[in-house]
Write a structure and sequence with these properties.
single chain; alpha+beta
Length: about 100
C-alpha cells in the first residue's frame, strides 16, 4: 500500500493530552484503519513539512496525500471512526477559523 492510503494521525509523543486522544481513537476506531506516529519520528519527517513537525500544538491527520490540522483533523478523524463519532461532522458547517478557536 502506498504512503497516504491509510490515515495516519501524528501526535506529540511527549504530550499526555495527545496520548489520551490517541488512546481514545484506538478504543473507538472499530475498523482499526487509523495508524499513529509521533511528530518527532521518522514517518513524520518523511511525510510532513519541518515547520509542522516543530509546532506540536495539534494533532495532524495525513490521509490521501492531504494534511489536516486542528479542528479539521479532529472532524476528519471522527468521520474515519464511523458511527456514532461521524455525527460530529455536522460541525464542518461552522467556519474553520471559529472551529479552530474552540479547538485551541
Amino acid at each position: 500500500m502506498k504512503p497516504g492510503a491509510e490515515p495516519i494521525v501524528f501526535f506529540d509523543g511527549v504530550c499526555n493530552l495527545c496520548n489520551h486522544a490517541v488512546d481514545f481513537i484506538i478504543r473507538h476506531d472499530k475498523r482499526h484503519s487509523i495508524r499513529f506516529a509521533s511528530l518527532q519520528g521518522e514517518t513524520a519527517a518523511s511525510l510532513l513539512p519541518s515547520a509542522m513537525r516543530s509546532s506540536l500544538s495539534t494533532l495532524v491527520l495525513f490521509h490521501k496525500e492531504k494534511i489536516f490540522t486542528h479542528s479539521t483533523a479532529v472532524l476528519n478523524i471522527a468521520r474515519l471512526m464511523g458511527w456514532p463519532w461521524k455525527i460530529f461532522c455536522v460541525f464542518f458547517f461552522i467556519p474553520r477559523f471559529l472551529r479552530d478557536v474552540l479547538y485551541k
